[in-house]
Amino acid sequence: MTSWWQSGTIYQVYPRSFQDSDGDGIGDLKGIEARLDHLVALGVDAVWISPIFPSPMADFGYDVADYTGIDPRFGTIADFDDLLAAAHARGLKLLLDFVPNHSSSEHPWFQASRSARTDPKRDWYIWRDPAPGGGPPNNWQSFFGGSAWEYDKASGQYYLHLFLKEQPDLNWRNPAVQAAMLDAMRFWFDRGVDGFRIDVLWLAIKHADFPDNPSNPDWREGMQDIDRLLPTHSADQPEITGVVTAMRTLADQYDERVLIGEIYLPFDRLVTYYGPDGGGVHLPFNFELLQTPWTAQAIARLITDYEAALPPGAWPNWVLGNHDKPRIAARVGQAQARVAAVLLLTLRGTPTLYAGDEIGMTGEPIPTDRIRDPQALREPGIAFNRDEVRMPMPWNDSPNAGFTTGEPWLPLGSDWRTRNVAAQAADPASLLALHRDLLHLRRKHAALATGDIALIAVEGDVLAYERTADDERLVIALNLGTTDQHVTLPEGELLLTTLNEPVPEADRGGEITLAPDEAIILRVSR
Ligand code: GLC
Ligand code: MG
Prior knowledge:
With 526 residues, the chain is an alpha/beta fold. The chain folds into three domains: 367 residues, Glycosidases (TIM Barrel, Alpha-Beta Barrel); 53 residues, Alpha-Beta Complex (Oligo-1,6-glucosidase, domain 2); 73 residues, Golgi alpha-mannosidase II (Immunoglobulin-like, Sandwich). It is 26% helix and 17% strand. The strands form four sheets. An eight-stranded parallel sheet has the order 9-8-7-3-2-1-11-10. A five-stranded antiparallel sheet has the order 12-13-14-18-16. The chain is globular and about 75 Å long. It starts with a helix and ends with a strand. The chain binds alpha-D-glucopyranose (GLC) and magnesium ion. The site of alpha-D-glucopyranose has 9 residues, from loops.
C-alpha cells in the first residue's frame, strides 16, 4: 500500500508572493484559496506553504512569534480553516512549515528568557557566558554572516542564533521546549493539516559543550562566512534522533500525516533522518538536484548513489527548486528546463515543485533599493539574492500580473506580460502544458508514480532510465545537452516528447536521435 505522499507531487507556495487578495502587495491565505484551481489543473497533490504564523518578518516568517496563530498579513485563523477546507474539497493535501530550531526574538518565550537569568524560561534558549577574557563563547558563525552569538548587556550573557539575531535558537535539550513545540504541532494536526515541512531540522540540536568548529580547508573568497568553518559541533548531532522520533511518534497518532525534513547533508548522513526502522521523518528532502552540475554523468551518479544509500523501506524524493536557491530555468535555460521537468517528474520518489518553476520563472537581479532578503542585505558579497526566487507569481497580463491591486512587495519579473499562467495555460507548447501532461502521466502510470527505476544508458549528454511496475515498462530518455545525441532504446510507443514539432517516426525507440534539449517517454512492452 502506498500513501498519498509517496505517489503524489508536492507544490511549494511562498505565500508572500503567490496571490494577494487585499491590495497590500503581500500574498495571503485568501489569495492562495483563490488560486487552488491552478494547482488542480496542474495535477499536483499537496501544497506546502512557507510560514504563515505571526512574525515580525525579519526573515519573512521564518522568525515565528506565535506557533499557533496566523499573521494578520496573511489573514485569520478562520481564513486558514477555509483554505484547508477548500484544499481538501479539491482533493489537495495541505502542509505547513514548522520552524523548530529558532523562534522570533519577539516570541513571548524569548522575551521571558531574556528578562532575567533566573526566569523559568531562561533555559528555553541557549545562553552562555562570554569566553574567558571576553567575546563570544565560541567561534560559531551565523548562516547569515557574522558570529552566531549576540551579547545581552542586561544579563551579561550571549545567546545563540544560527540565523539572524532576531531568530534565537531554542534549546531542544530542554524537555519543556520539546513538549511546547510538540503541542504546537498537535494544534495544527488537530485542525486537519496533512503534515509539516520542518525547517533546518539537522540543526536543531547542538553539541552539549559548544566546542569551537574546525576551519574548512576548502573555503574560498566569495563563499559565505558560515562556510569558513565545518559544522562539526553545530549540526547533525546524534541526539537529533530523539527529537525526530518524538515528532514522528506524534504524527503517527494521526492518519496518513507526513513529515518532511529540510536537511542539507550528504546522502550518507541525510538518510539517517529516515530514523531507526523508518521511525524518523517520512521524507528527508533530497536537495542534490539543486546543486549538481547539469550533466548526464553527474545526474546518473546522483541517482545511483541516492538509491544505494536509501535504507530498506525508505521512500525517495527529489527537489528541483525552493525559495532559497536559484531557479532551474535560470540555471539551465528555458529549453533545458523542459528536460528538467521531465527528470523531476519521472524519477523514483516524491517530487517537490516550487511555484513559478512550472512557467519557467527565472528570477533576475533586484534593484538595490528593493532588496529585502536579510541574508543578501547582511552579506552583500554573496553571489545569490533569495529575492530573485521570491518575486510575485505572474498570473495574467492585467496590471501587476494579477498578483495584486497594490504595490507588489518585490518587483515582478520583467517578462510577466508574456510569461504568465494564463498565457501558458492557453498554449499547448508551453512549459506549463508540459507539466500538466507529465503530472497527468504520473497519475495514469503506476510505473511513474511508484514503480522501480533502473538506468539504461548514460552516454554523452544522454541519460536514459526505465520505470517499471507490474506489466508496465516506461523508458525515459533525456538529452541534457544542446547537440543531437544518438542512442539505442527499446522500441515502444511515444507517450511524451518535450519537442513541439512533429516527431520523426524514428523517435519511437530503436536507434534514435534525440534533438537538443529533447526528452521523451516511451511505453515499451515487457
Ligand atoms: C531555512 C529556510 C530559509 C530560512 C532559514 C532560517 O533554510 O528555508 O528560508 O531563512 O531556514 O529559518
Ligand atoms: Mg495581502
